[in-house]
Design a protein that fits this description.
The complex is a heterotrimer of chains A (165), B (264) and C (793).
Chain A lengths: L2 E6 L2 E6 L6 H8 L18 E4 L2 E4 L12 E3 L13 H8 L9 H13 L7 H7 L11 H15 L9
Parallel strand pairs in A: 1-5
Antiparallel strand pairs in A: 1-2, 3-4, 3-5
Helix pairs in contact in A: 2-5, 3-5
Chain B lengths: L4 E3 L4 H10 L4 E3 L5 H6 L7 E4 L8 E4 L2 E5 L4 H6 L1 H6 L1 H7 L5 H4 L4 H7 L6 H8 L2 E4 L3 E3 H4 L14 E7 L3 E8 L6 E10 L2 E7 L7 E2 L1 H9 L24 H18 L2
Parallel strand pairs in B: 1-3, 2-3
Antiparallel strand pairs in B: 4-5, 5-8, 6-7, 6-8, 9-10, 10-11, 11-12
Chain C lengths: L14 H5 L15 E7 L5 E7 L1 H5 L3 E6 H6 L31 E2 L5 E7 L2 H10 L1 E6 L6 H5 L14 E8 L1 H9 L3 E9 L11 E7 L4 E6 L4 H12 L7 E4 L15 H13 L3 E4 L2 H7 L6 E9 L5 E13 L26 E10 L13 H19 L3 H8 L8 E2 L5 E2 L4 H11 L5 H10 L3 E10 L7 H7 L7 E7 L5 E5 L8 H13 L6 E5 L16 H27 L7 E4 L2 E4 L5 E3 H9 L14 E6 L8 E10 L6 E11 L6 H21 L29 E5 L17 H17 L14 H17 L1
The chains are: A alpha+beta (165), B alpha+beta (264), C alpha+beta (793).
Chain lengths: 165, 264, 793
Amino acid sequence: MPQVSLTVNGTHHTVEVENRTLLVELLRETLGLTGTHVGCDTSQCGACVVHLDGASVKSCTMLAVQAEGAKVTTIEGLAAADGTLHPMQEMFREHHALQCGFCTPGMVMSAVDLVQSHPEGLSEHQIREGLEGNLCRCTGYHNIVKAIAAAWPLMHGKALPVAAE
Amino acid sequence: MYDFAYQKPSNVADAVAALGADPEAKAVAGGMTLIPVLKQRLNRPSVVVDLAKTGLAGITAGAGSITIGAMTTHAAVAHSADVQRVIPALAALAGLIGDEQVRHRGTIGGSLANNDPAADYPAAALALGATITTTKRAIKADDFFQGMFTTALEPDELITKVEFPAATKANYQKFRNPASRYAIVGVFVAQTAAGVRVAVTGAGQGGVFRHTAMEAALSKNFSADAIADVVTPADDLNGDIHASSEYRAHLIGVMARRAVAAAA
Amino acid sequence: MGFEGIGAAVRRKEDLRFLSGRGHYTDDINRPGQLYASIRRADRPHARIKGIDTAAAKASPGVAAVFTGADMAADNIGGLPCGWQIHNKDGSPMAEPPHPVLAVDKVRHVGDPVAVVIAATRQQAKDAAEALVIDYEDLPSIAGLRDAIAPGAPLVHDEVAGNLCYDWHIGDKALVDAAFARATKVVKLDLENNRLIPNAMEPRAALGDFDSMSGDYTLFTTSQNPHVIRLLMGAFVLHIPENHLRVVAPDVGGGFGSKIYHYAEEAIVTWAAGKLKRPVKWTADRSESFMSDAHGRDHVSTAEMALDADGHFLALRVSTLANMGAYLSTFAPCVPTYLYATLLAGVYKTPAIYVEVKAVFTNSVPVDAYRGAGRPEATYLLERLVDVIARETGIDRVELRRRNFIANDAFPYQTPVALQYDSGDYTATLNAALKVADYAGFAQRRAAAAARGKLRGIGVSTYLEACGIAPSAVVGSLGARAGLYECANIRVHPTGSVTVFTGSHSHGQGHETTFAQLVHSQLGVAMDQIEIVHGDTDKIPFGMGTYGSRSLAVGGSAMVKAMDKVIAKGRKIAAHLMEAAVDDVEFKDGKFTVAGTDKSRALAEISLAAYVPHNYPIEELEPGLEETAFYDPKNFTYPGGCHIAEVEIDPETGVTTVINFTAVDDVGRVINPMIVEGQVQGGVAQGIGQALLEAAIYDKSGQLLSGSMMDYTMPRADNLPNITVGTESTLCTHNPLGVKGCGEVGAIGSPPAIMNAVVDALADYGVRHIEMPATAPKLWSIIQAGRPRLAAE
C-alpha cells in the first residue's frame, strides 16, 4: 500500500493510504482529526479548509499522496500549545460568528489566511469576497465578517486602516 | 473515486514518458478539475501522473511579455508584482478564478490544457495572443483551443510555459454563474502591438472564441461607444438553467463595454 | 463576572469545542469493527423494478452484504410512517400510500433508495453499489404541480387517483363569498413559492450498532429529535421496544427542518447492524443530500382580496396546490394546512377567510417543513398581495397596512382561520423598522441611484407567525399523531451544581448557553456549574425535539416548571433546617431565607442535605434533589414584526444587490440578545436566498436539474448585506417566560420584503409581480420587455 509522510500540527506521520485517499480522509479517518469537515463534494463549501505549507487549501480536493512532505495545519493545531485560542478563534466566539459549528473550522482556517495575506488592511467588501470559498448556512455571514475585521488588529498588532471603499 | 496508480516524476521528461506509456494515464497539475471529476467517478485513469515536482512553476518578466510556467498557481499569478506591472488585467483575471483556496492549488497549465468552456484563462490567452510552449513545440493560442475541453495537445504532450505579450490596454470582465462561480460570460479585451482582440469565454458552444465584429469596431475606435451597437448573435451560444443563449449574447455586449471602459 | 441572567448577551458555552475542532458530529463517531453503507438510488423519476442482480456487487472486494427491498420485506420491516393525518373536505382521510424503506416494486423519484451495499470501507461500498445491475421499466412521470393534477396525468401511486393526497379547506366559504359579492374592488394574484433544498452544512449521517449480548440497538444520527426517531423507527419500522433502542443525536451541523424526519437510512443502518452484528455507518455525499433530504416550500396559489372603498380588507380567498413529492415525509401533510392556511390572517383584521389546499404527489423528492414551514408561504402570499393591492388602489403601502392592522387593544384576537393571537403590537415594530431603515429618506437614495444608472427599490413586509408548537390536544384534533409537549429534568447535584436534561435538541441554536441562563436566573447557580444535556434517549426522559421555534417556549417552560418543583422541595428542606414554617421560606438569588429573619441557606447547602439526609424531614420527604416536568403549551406563540429591504438592480445585467436589510421583530422576552440577533440574521439570509438565489429545478419528467451546489445557488458572504436586527417585544401571555421564538422569523418575514423591493425598483417597467427567485436573467427579461413601452411613453 502506498505511504505518505507529512507533518500535521507539528507532529510527523508516516501512514498507509490508497492512492485515491483524499487528504481530508487521511486527516479525519487515519489521524482521527475530525475537526476538519466535509460539507460538499464539489469543492465549494470550504468546511474542509486546512493550511498546506501555510496556504489555505480544500483538503477534499487533494489526494493524500499529493501532500507528501507537506506541513499541514488543521483547526486542532491553531490554538497555542497551552490552549490559548488563536485571535481568530477568540473573535469568532466574541462576535457570535458560529452557530452549528460545522462550517466553523474551515471558515476559521480561511479567515486566518485571509487576514495574514492582507497586511495592508481589509475592507468589509474584501472580507466578503475573500470568503467566497466558504459556505455557512446558519449565520448569514454578518457576524463572521465582523469577527474577521475584529481579528485583523489582533493579528497584525495595529489598528485596521479605514477602508477606502 | 476509482483507485489508480500514482506517479510523481521529478522531471518533465519522465512525466512525458509516463503519460506516453499508458493511454489511460492522466496528468494532474493542481487537480482542481481532475479531482472533483474523479470523485464523481466520471473518469477512470489507470495512472495519475502528478506534475508537482517537474519544476514548471515560475514567472519571468521579459521585454514586453510575461512568461508563466505551467505549474504556476492562480494565486501566484494574481499576487505577482511582475504580472501586476506588465499585464495587470492578467493578474486580476487570475484573482477571479474559483476562490482563494482553489487559486492556491489550481495552475495555469492545468486550466489551459483542460479548456473548460467556462474557464477564465483561455480568454486571456486568446485575447493577448499568447504562445503556449509544450514539451514538443510552441503553439499560438489561436491554434491551441479547438472546442469545448479540446486542445491541440497530444496525449503525451505537456504545457511547460505560456508567454503573454504585454498589452497597451487590457481588461477582463466576468459575469459569474451564481452557483458554481464559473464564468457565464467572460470577456477579455486587449489592445496589443498586434491589434485589438476580444475573447469570450463561458458563452460559446465551442468554448472560448474571438468576437471579430467587436474587434473590427474597436480597432477603429477603442471605446465602449464603438461597440454599443455591435449585436452578438445568440445562435451558437450556450443556454442552461442559469442563462439563456439570448441573455449570454446580451451579457457579452455588457461585459465587453465594461472591459473596454475599464481597460488600462 | 457581569450579569449573566435573562437578557444578557452571554458568550456561548458551546463555542470552545466547535472553534477547536472538538465538536462531535455523527460522522466523527467510529465504532470498532465498523462497516460502511452505500445506497444505490434511482437515477430516474419513475420506473418499475423488474429485477436487481446483486451477484457482482456481492463478489466485489470488501463487501459484507447487499440488501434490497425484498430482504427488508422478508424481515417484516415496516414502511416509513407519516406523523400527521389530514382529512379531506368530505371528512375522509387523506391518501397515505406506503413508503417503503428500500423501494420494492417501483421507484418514484430520482434518489429513491433501491438497495444498500455494506462493505469494509466507504470506497469499497461505493464500488460495489455501482456494480449492482438494476433492470428498470421506465414509466411516465411528472414533477410539476399543475401537470400532476391534469386529467390523465401519470400516477405516482397507482392507488392514488389524480395524484391527490388530500383536498382540504378551512374558513367560512359562504361568508367569504358574500363579502366578495359586496366588495368595491377585488384584487387577485397568482403566485408560486419556489421549491428549496435545505442544505444544512453537515450532510446527514447515521451509524447503527447492535450488542448481541443485550439485544440493544444504538443509532447515532443527525437528528433534531432523537426521541421521535426512536418512537417512529422502533414502533413502526423495525419493531424494537424502547428499552432496546437508544438514539443519539450528538452535535448536529444545522437542521432547518430537514433533520426532523425519520429517514430510510436510519432504519437501514440500524437494521443492518442487527443483521450483520457489526456497526454500520452511512454518510451522505452532498449530491446525495440533494435527492434524499426532504425539500421545502413548492406551492402554486391563487389569492384574491375583497376590499371596500377605503381599502379595508373584507375577505380573503386562497386556493393552493402543495407538492408532497413522491411520498409523505414525517410532517409533510401539516405544512400546507395547519402551518400555512391558519396563518393567512397575518397581522390583519380580515374578517372572513377561506382557504382550499390540494396536496399533490409528484415524481420528486418528498417535501416537508423547511425553516418557517408553511408560514413563509403564507407570509409571502399575503405580503405580496398587500403590495399589489396598494399599487392598484393607489393607497400607500405602509398606510394600507396600518389601516388593516389588528389593533393593540384587540388581543386576544380570534382570527377567522382558527388561531387566537395572545399579544402583539404591529404598529410598534413597523414604526421602529421604518425609522431604522430611514424609510423617509428613501426617495433621495432612489434618485441618487438613478443618477448612477441603477434602479433602487424598497420593500416592506409586516408579518406574523405561529410557533412554539404546540398544544397537544389541539394538534391531536387537527391530525397530529403525537403530542407536542416538551420534557425537562433538573438534577441538582450534592454540591449544588446542576445538570439539565432536555428534550430540546440544539443544532446551532445555542441552547447550552440560553438554557443555562434560565437556570442561572432561576436557581442562582453559576453559569460554569450548569451543564445542559440533550440528544440522547438513554439520558433524557423524553422529548419532542427542536423545530417550529419551540425550544425556549416549550422546552424552556418545561425547565421553569421543573425548577419550580426543585425550589418547592428545597423550601421544605430549608424550613426543616432553619426550623421555620415552609410558608415563611423564600427563595431568591440562590438562597433560601426565612422571611423577616437573617436566617439563610444556600442552594448548595440544601442539596447537600438532600443527598446526605442526616438532619432531614425523612418522614415526609424523599432524599435527593431532582425533578422532572413535562410542559404542554396552552397556545401557539405569535412572533411578528416588520422587515424592510432596500435593493438596487443593475438594468444592464438584471443583477440585484441587497443594499440594506432591517428586521424589527417581536419575539417575546429575549433571553440572550446576541443569540436572537444571530438567529434572525441566519433566517434572513435564507429568506434572501429564497427570494433571489435558490431554486430546486426539476424538468417536466422529474430529473433534478439543480442537483448539486454547482447548480443550486447557496447564498455566500458576497451575496448578502449587513442585516440590522432590532426587537420590539410584547410578552407571550401564556407561557411562564413570556417568550415567543426567534428561529424562523427571519426566513418568514424576509422573502416578501425583498420581492416587494424588487418589484418597487422595477415599478416603471410595467411589472405587477415577479416569481422567486428574482434571478438576473429573469429581471433582465422583464427590463427588456418593459423598455419599448417606456420608450413609447
